[in-house]
Amino acid sequence: MDRLVVGSAPAQADDDGGRDVPAGPAAVDAALLRRLVAAVHRLWPRGWQPADVARIVARRLGARPGRLVVDALAADRAAQPGPVPQWWDDQLTALDARVRWDDDAGWLGGWATREGTDRIAALRDAVEVLALLAGLPPVAVLRPPPGGVGAVTVTGAPGPSGSRVLDRVRALLAKAESTTFPAEAEAFTGKAQELIARHSLERALVESTAAHPDQPGGVRISTDAPYAGAKALLVQEVAAANRCESVWSDDLGFATVLGFPADLEAVELLHTSLLVQATAAMLRGRRERRGGGRRTKAYDEAFLHAFASRIGERLRAATDAADRQAARDTGADRLLPVLAARSGAVRERMDTLFPGVTRARLTVRDAEGWQSGTSAADRASLAGSAPPSRPLTGRR
């Protein structure tokens, strides 16, 4: 990280362009923004994406520095010489990354005012963000960044989803999240998975004869505390049910899911909904448990592990049923080689990006929490079942 000298000084030529820049605090603020933009820009060829950067800063430094780095992301986007891939702008839009200042020299002051803090605290946040960005390790390059080799530029406004099937899935999952009846939520979620599985099979058959078929890609899904292991297990279970592979990076707070584009979109949709459902069910379970609603970490973890495990079984059952129906409709001799080829391509992508992957076991220590979580995912009585340990693919 470049050293910054803070103090009063006469106006001088800017090192980069020979332009006159303001003296004193305004010069420092403009220089800080340039350093922040350079720091985030250096991360793009190292595999990081805007959403990843905002997440890691908020995770390690807190919400306010997380919002500060979003300003740097907005400034970096404004400095891009041309159009960028649509997914890049989608991430920035989701972060509400916008240039809210008229002049770089007034950027930090405006940010401090919006945050309700003083200049010293704002300077401290900016320097801490710079130090963190400088020390981030490279991660898997899931998609070429703007200007990278193989980057694809998409122009024009995107549609709401690009798929009527996925719009129906979203509607079903919204119903599952809003109902207070667990059995009803399970029915909506199961129907959503059936639609997703059929959509995936149809897409696979179409792509098998395409001149330029889809290739495996990847997405990152947050697994921040609390209960990061349980959240990672939920990602893995949903991914496995949708022909994807998942690798958990505990130290960075995310799971990387690898698969074909339609399957990855399905995983993101289902995981987001199921996490909402699991959390709501866990809160209900606390109230219903013996001794009242007292929270214990062991109970909550066991509950979420069991929920993820049982939901994974239900999702895989729905996928298997769709596979059998598709094999009857299109012929197993046509379908099975296509599915095998896609599974092999995903596995090859995983071996390329994560050659040092290991398996860890998540141990459940609260039998009551395990049974309650299983019941929340499937109302069948499983009294007396032992809480097992679960394998999880990840990097430590």
From TrEMBL:
Database matches in Pfam families: DUF2786 (PF10979), DUF7168 (PF23771)
The cross-references to InterPro entries, in alphabetical order and at most eight, read: DUF2786, DUF7168
| UniProt-annotated stretches for the region Disordered | 1-22, 370-396
Q: Where is each DUF7168 domain found?
A: 232-335
Q: Which residues form the DUF2786 domain?
A: 164-202
Protein name, per record: Uncharacterized protein
Organism name: Micromonospora wenchangensis
